[in-house]
């Protein structure tokens, strides 16, 4: 994608360098000064704490006996911790079930809105986007009420038409209920990203497709989707990271259905509970680090495979 | 370079100094000048020196009692801060203690969490600050909670002796004239109520460890023990505990007791709508219920808990808290006076009981007609306070906790909560819970008895 402009820039560079003057240097200093505040905050608020928690993860702190260097013991323990693996499996379920459903729906909505055939598309766009503007805390509490087995509207309607009481908040079903909440929350967000990308497709492509006699679906499939692939990839990566970092939903659903949400329901939530309830800060740091590593690896793999595919396609064409 | 080294040296010296100061502060116990009780002169001096105290508590409107304190000691300025209720409060407290700064002078601590702060040597022993003399002014078991040995770690603020709140109309409808006296009666009544009204006689909150531990307490089960140092006793799957567990398993499996998670919207509505015909709760329950189930006013009554053997009068406790002074406080005398005043001064204690509706542990309030003779319309004119005042005398006096109750509760949710919700065998879950607790305690370096 970005290859041509990069090439142009590298070609222009030698000429630039020759013209370096004091004014240029001044400008450069100014530029560095401008980004300095950011780097200071970045360093003190992100890099240092990161290293600190990494450092912490190599220790072991007991209520009796205090802190001791433990080497990789916390990591070894994490790899053998069935609760941690269980939480990762649930994330995997999210990645395989919830993310595709959410993104496909978002894509469908984006395409429908972009086709300009839906009436009142502005309002619809806003309505679909609205859940994203609702804070996750409020959303989860609201869904907690909707899911309620006794007084929740869904349960009442289901009973009224003789379907019995649907159980959304039982240990077996809570994962699905949570997927539903997250889908509802983020469909609009992903849709907006895709929609924005769709709007930037040059109209000539459509004209060309029309001349070739392509219908709307054909246009969507062969023109629009390939054109916005980078945007789609972006939403995929965001969704992967988001799935690994689910916290609000399990944490709030825990107040509604503590019997269904275990402490290790999601890895991030597990790390939190380890640190603040079990008072195993060091182990929590190790879990958090492993999680970060995993997110980086998975995101990288996804990106890499996409790049490979792109390269392969370019070679073919 | 030289300059740099100097600063480094100064920094080092600074940290060393800070470290000594810190260790000096956190040595637990220790009175004002390293020995002997604080004298009245020292107290007078401290109370007439301009001082600012910080007080972390989540009791609503406690400003009113603090105002009384400030009125009496105009030189002392108290900043009341609410940093969260329960867990978030303790988490912030621990963080502040660990960080060595930002901790309050006085903090609200529930009884079961006192040992964890004793373990970290974060509390000031109030025995030398005049608290040792207060023992006889409090209900015996409540005093034992704050002072298991010679030390006094906190001043009791409120307690939760357990009783039975029930819907008289629903029980009458089921042909039950008297509140069940024994647990056998209760089981029979549960069946009658379910058959004739469709209501559950009460709900056992699936993840509510406090309630279950209260039942253990009543049954004389001693699941926990802590010697104040490195040895803990964990015995949650004793025969006694299993008997209690089997009783509830039976009722739950016969669908006579519901196991909804409590203190959420569903449950509030269940109380208000008659889904539950009763609530086995603590002394703070009656006022709480009044706010929750307004529509059923006049139909509720209060009674003691059913008993394991007929003729007994035993209860357990669920909830309640105390005010402790942190060892790191720079104004220990004033802080101790604040903790004492709020919970001991007659006017303040009375006000806590009648305006903040905290059920008092203090004998003078528990025998004050202004408190116990109050008649409550919600309970058909019954003198509910008097009943619970009587119950408070029947609570087993020696009940201990573990110094890591956060974990105990979360582990309860994991092991017991899921089983109770699934109507499983609660006694078997006790074994799992026991195993988890023992392995955690051992991991944390405790000696488990």
Structural description of this entry:
The complex is a heterodimer of chains A (317) and B (449). The relative contact order of chain A is 0.11. In chain A, β1 and β2 form a beta hairpin. Chain A has helices spanning 3-18, 22-56, 73-79, 82-115, 121-133, 136-147, 153-160, 174-199, 203-211, 216-227, 229-244, 248-256, 267-276, 281-316; strands spanning 59-62, 66-69. Chain A has 317 residues and is mainly α. The radius of gyration of chain A is 25 Å and the shape is globular. The two termini of chain A are 15 Å apart. Chain A has a two-stranded antiparallel ribbon. Chain B folds into two domains: 34-159 and 320-372, Periplasmic binding protein-like II (D-Maltodextrin-Binding Protein, domain 2); 160-318 and 380-448, Periplasmic binding protein-like II (D-Maltodextrin-Binding Protein, domain 2). Chain B has helices spanning 2-25, 40-47, 63-72, 87-99, 114-119, 140-146, 168-173, 183-197, 209-218, 239-253, 265-273, 285-292, 332-344, 346-354, 363-366, 369-372, 384-392, 405-421, 426-443; strands at residues 51-56, 76-81, 106-110, 155-167, 224-226, 231-234, 278-282, 300-304, 317-325, 447-448. In chain B, strands 1, 2, 3, 4, 7, 8 and 9 form a seven-stranded mixed sheet that branches. In chain B, α3 packs antiparallel against α14 (346-354), α10 packs across α19 and α18 (405-421) packs antiparallel against α19. The chains are: A mainly alpha (317), B alpha/beta (449). The interface between A and B is medium-sized, with 25 and 32 residues. Chain A: Residues 88-302 form the ABC transmembrane type-1 domain. Chain A: This is ABC transporter permease subunit.
